[in-house]
Amino acid sequence: MNRQRWKKYGFMAEVIVLTLTAALCWKDVSQGAFAAGHGAEKAENNSSSESAEDSGTGSGGNSGTDSAEDSDTGSGGNSGTDSAEDSGMGSGGDSGTDSAEDSGTGSGVNSGADSTGKDYIKWVDFHVTSEAMRQACAYDVDTYGQEGHLNWVDLLAYLGARYGGDFKQYKAKDMDKIAERLQKGETTVEKLSAEIKSFDYYREAYGAVLDGLVGEYQIEAEDQGQGAQSQESQGEVSWTKKYGLKGYSPIAKSFPYNDYDDFGVARSYGYRREHLGHDMMGQTGTPIVAVESGYVSAMGWNQYGGWRLGISSFDGRRYYYYAHLRQNFPYCKSLEVGSIVQAGDVIGYMGRTGYSAKENVNNIDTTHLHFGLQLIFDESQREGNHEIWVDVYELVKFLYKNQSEVVRDDATKEWSRVYQIKDPEASAYLESDQGKQTADIDPANK
Q1: Distant-in-sequence, close-in-space partners of 129: CB < 8 Å, separation ≥ 6
Q2: Does residue 381 fall inside a structural domain?
Q3: Could you please report the per-residue DSSP string of 83-121?
Q4: Are 401 and 214 in contact (CB under 8 A)?
Q5: For residue 286, which of 408, 400, 397, 399 has the smallest C-alpha distance?
Q6: How many CB atoms neighbour CB 347 within 10 A?
Q7: Where would you tag: which of 69, 303, 374, 403 has the fewest CB atoms within 10 A of its CB?
Q8: β-sheet bridge partners, residue 219
Q9: Count of domains forming the chain
Q10: Domain containing 332 — which CATH number?
């Protein structure tokens, strides 16, 4: 009897030990998997995602001016029909990404290290509201030149860390409080970085989206923009030095469009995927504008995006993607891969090309611009399943305050900006080794 009890109790003890051991192992494994694989789960969920491309007609808000002239006539006649007079078809190279037609990206908030141990951000959720951007930008511009100059991205990064990236919680008074503390010297950005664990992440993530949009620039003096510092005459052109918003809406001034937040909605051409861009519906021939200064890194036909254009920022962090451009006359004729563009320059024309392996085909039902923004923290994210595309709906609403005024040349049927700018970032890039290499690209090899 005692022997039977011993066997029974011994067996029960062995079961208890094995159960505890398994539980401890599972805890370690699950914690490690969450820490290291949180982004991977999102990547799998989005592995069939694509950034561009369906017409996405929605009933969303009207961000343009509905009373503006029809874009085919604009202020200078018939600039934009599908049978445009000059082909202007870029066959330029395919350097750069094709904007996530096969991106398979997610948009989480994770960072990690590559095989060399280098840390970089793996995912970004950009949910900053246009109202928060406007308030932060105003603080930045208003305090420029002062000892307590406030950087708008620092302010947004603080709120991002406070809200956990959820700007549904945004209150203007929250930004007022941190702005006041910074200006009074009660705290510093360095202290915020040390005190708030996630501040550095949000500063880098939001900076990757916004850092190129506010700063110093020069513009022709006739412009009535922000904060003139001084004027100087250069030949017959008078230039005004300014500091402020130098990023532009992708749609030229006085051309109507409508849009809604369609990031992540389903697309089915080719295969089922998510839409990783922003569609802006308008009229054929509407001039499309460079949002930020940069260089043309991709140009030509893509099965999904039709005639498309990719512009990379000078710091290499942002890749702007403009797709479904006009049949026969998609681009500004002077553009080629390697061309330097200034923010606000006309770069192409709205259309409905794409969804065809054959070039120059209108297979998109609704005329629109697909506008996308890819972030690049590491070269492994430039192409493939690790690309990061962010929702730009709120950013587009913010940039609407700064639209480029354009004029049509009846002889060439091209549109161009009325007031030129000089972006010091462009000048610095042209003087750099990389800029010189870009300028020396042989068009025959594009």
Answers
A1: 167, 170, 394
A2: yes
A3: T-SS---------S--TTTT--------EEE-TT--EEE
A4: no
A5: 408
A6: 25
A7: 69
A8: 240, 421
A9: 1
A10: 2.70.70.10
- CA atoms of 275 and 100, how far apart (whole Å): 9
Cα atoms found within 13 Å of the Cα of residue 129, Cβ hemisphere only: 13
Q: Indicate the SS3 state at residue 39.
A: helix
Q: Locate 201 and state its tokens.
A: 């992440």
Residue 5: inside a domain, yes or no?
A: no
Give a yes or no: residue 137 inside a domain: no
d(CA 419, CA 221): 8
Q: Tell me: the pLDDT tens digits for 131-179? A: 999 999 999 999 999 999 999 999 999 999 999 999 999 999 999 999 9
Given a cut of 50, is residue 121 above it in pLDDT?
A: yes
Residue 81 lies in a domain: yes
Does residue 249 carry a pLDDT above 50?
A: yes
How many CB atoms are located within 10 Å of the residue 138 CB? 15
Q: pLDDT tens across 267-305, in order?
A: 877 677 788 899 999 999 999 999 999 999 999 999 999
CA separation, residue 443 to residues 96, 190, 294, 299, 301 (Å): 16, 46, 18, 12, 17
